Amino acid sequence: MATSFAGAAVFVFRGCWHRKMSWPVRAQDYSYQVCMGCGIKRLFDEKSFRSYGPYSYELDRLMAWERGHRLKAHSQAADSSERSAS
Ligand SMILES: [Zn+2]
């Protein structure tokens, strides 16, 4: 009985669709939103006014992902400029 109740609680928790996100919060160079339902965080782009990237409860992880993402975007831009030049 107790086990099935805990299982149901986990299901509800994981079933959160993160529909109610807070207003963007600024932290250092980053903006992120927090889910009002479960507290998960997601990066927020102030320029396009959209959230993006993975969800994570740990802001450190999102920041690490963002750093990697920025590097990747840089290298991709370099690739495409090389291609268009040739
Ligand atoms: Zn949520």
Q: Can you describe this structure?
A:
The N and C termini lie far apart (68 Å). 47% of the residues lie in helices and 23% in strands. Strands 1-2-3-4 form a four-stranded antiparallel β-sheet, with helices on one face. It is elongated, with a radius of gyration of 18 Å. The longest helix has 27 residues, at 59-85. It has a domain at 16-73. The protein contains two helices and four strands. The protein is an alpha+beta fold. The protein binds zinc ion.
Structural class: alpha+beta
Q: Please compute the radius of gyration using only Cα atoms.
A: 18 Å
Specify the helix fraction band.
40-55%
Rough shape?
elongated
Ions, cofactors, ligands: which are bound?
Answer: zinc ion
Relative strand content: 15-25%
Short recap of the structure:
47% of the residues lie in helices and 23% in strands.
Q: What distinguishing features does this structure have?
A:
single chain, 86 residues, alpha+beta, four-stranded antiparallel sheet, 2 helices, binds zinc ion
